[in-house]
Amino acid sequence: MWVPGLLGPLALVLALAAGGGHALSFQLPPQTRKCLKEELHRDVMVTGEYQVSEAGAPGVRIDLRVTDSAGHILYSKEDAKKGKFAFTTEDYEVYEICFESHGQTGNFRIPDQLISLSIKHGIEALNYENVAKAEKLKPLEVDLRRLEDLSESIVKDFAFMKQREEEMRDTNESTSARVFYFSIFSMLCLVGLATWQVFYLRRFFKAKKLIE
Q1: pLDDT, tens digit, for every residue of 97-120?
Q2: Neighbour count for residue 132 (Cβ, 10 Å)
Q3: How many beta carbons lie within 10 A of that of residue 46, not counting itself?
Q4: Burial of 48 per CB tally in 10 Å (0-12, 13-18, 19+)
Q5: pLDDT computed for residue 133 by the predictor
Q6: How far, in Å, CA of 82 to CA of 178, rounded?
Q7: Are 82 and 106 in contact (CB under 8 A)?
Q8: CA-based angle 210:211:212, to the nearest 5?
Q9: Comparing C-alpha atoms, which of 15, 93, 105, 24 is closest to residue 60?
Q10: Range in 2-6, 46-50, 144-148, 192-196 with the lowest mean pLDDT
Q11: Which residues of 52-76 are buried (b: 16+ CB within 10 A; e: fewer)?
């Protein structure tokens, strides 16, 4: 949260960096499947709200499924029209939200269905009104709690980025070392092959009495 006169631009940067939600709309043609994938950290709360337009053919339905990279179903809804879902990530991986159209369309043109999807995760997914009621917090205390959670989220993100940077650096150094040793091995092989060719040709020419 941006607190004027207290943190100023710094708080605005934190708020932008911690942006954990987005809304989008797209057209889903009949008999097609569209998915949204996102990479999330561990222990992150994710909430979503969706709505499917009523335009479509009788017998055509839209199914919604939320899965992780291992194929575990986190949320599933057949004939999804309007609703909400929520889950907490168990590990750092890619999560997928898919809408799929089913049913017979016949030989006539069926209009695409408009799907609206709003996803929030991290700080934006927390309901601070419920927190305030449960813990009996004052408005200022709620703002401070939100700012505290935001700061903690930023610290975790920076720690994760640092860890990934260290892993990438270690991988880069290991790859460079392997390439270096492989280059030396390749040069030794070439030198050995060239030496063998010289001796072989020397014996060949001597056998043909072309050289002494």
Answers
A1: 999 988 766 666 777 888 999 998
A2: 15
A3: 23
A4: buried
A5: 82
A6: 54
A7: no
A8: 135
A9: 105
A10: 2-6
A11: bbeebbeebebebbbbbeeeeebbe
According to DSSP, residue 123 is labeled: G
Please classify residue 77 by burial: count the beta carbons closer than 10 Å to its beta carbon, then call 0-12 exposed, 13-18 middle and 19+ buried. middle
- Percent over 70 (pLDDT), the chain: 84
Task: Work out the average pLDDT over 154-178.
Answer: 90
In 16-108, DSSP assigns E strands to 21-28, 33-40, 45-52, 61-68, 73-77, 82-88, 93-102
- In Å, what is the CA distance from 23 to each residue of 14, 48, 120, 121, 141? 20, 9, 8, 12, 29
Ordered by start, the domain boundaries in the chain are 20-125
- The two structure tokens encoding residue 197: 């060719």
In the three-class reduction of DSSP (H, G, I as helix; E, B as strand; rest coil), residue 106 is classed as coil
Report how far residue 171's alpha carbon sits from residue 150's, in angstroms, rounded to the nearest whole number.
31
The CATH number of domain 20-125, selected from 1.10.1660.10, 2.40.160.210, 1.20.1250.20, 2.60.120.380: 2.60.120.380
pLDDT confidence of residue 112: 82
Q: What pLDDT was estimated at residue 18? A: 42
